[in-house]
Give the backbone structure.
Amino acid sequence: MASHQNKIIIITAPSGAGKTSITRHLLSEMPDKLAFSVSATTRNARTYEKNGVDYFFLSPESFRQNIQENAFIEWEMVYEGKYYGTLKSELERIWKQGKVPLLDIDVKGAIHVMQQFPEDSLTIFIEPPSVSVLRERLTSRGTESAESIEARVSKASYELSFKEHFNFAILNDELTRACKEAQGKIIEFLNE
Ligand code: 5GP
């Protein structure tokens, strides 16, 4: 039987490309194999988000303390003044359950994790059909201010240029098809 020991799956994409929907779908389809790696962040929780489930919502002081203690595999200031990071303790917790952590993180963070786990990581880049579709999705989600949407769209254009760095790129023009394609890649990786 293939070993899942210390494997990592990373779903990365520009914000609004649909990676959270794909991540949720994968977790619901493969609950015995995958577990969501809960990141730490200093941004405010959205109304529907729960501490310890969606993120660990930390104060900037507490986030800095974790950096000093070398508690992160990677961390980034993803948006102006807002920090996000993957905790080593999350990966350990999931591996101990005999599952594979599924990370939903930004492009730079994904590259950092890949560099640390070149043999044991699978990175899937989710590509939005176009920047204008991305803007529409972010607007209709209704969770971001106009300023935040503009920041996310301009960052997305830059992030799209990193597509070639990842193991696979999946075009999210149709969510069901994109989910199926991602699941196929994951099954292959877990069987290696
Ligand atoms: P949001 O604020 O919409 O939840 O997330 C913003 C961006 O930060 C998304 O692209 C998300 O994938 C990314 N992100 C979430 N957690 C982490 C993390 O631990 N590390 C990094 N580098 N990015 C993260």
About this structure: The longest strand covers residues 72-79.
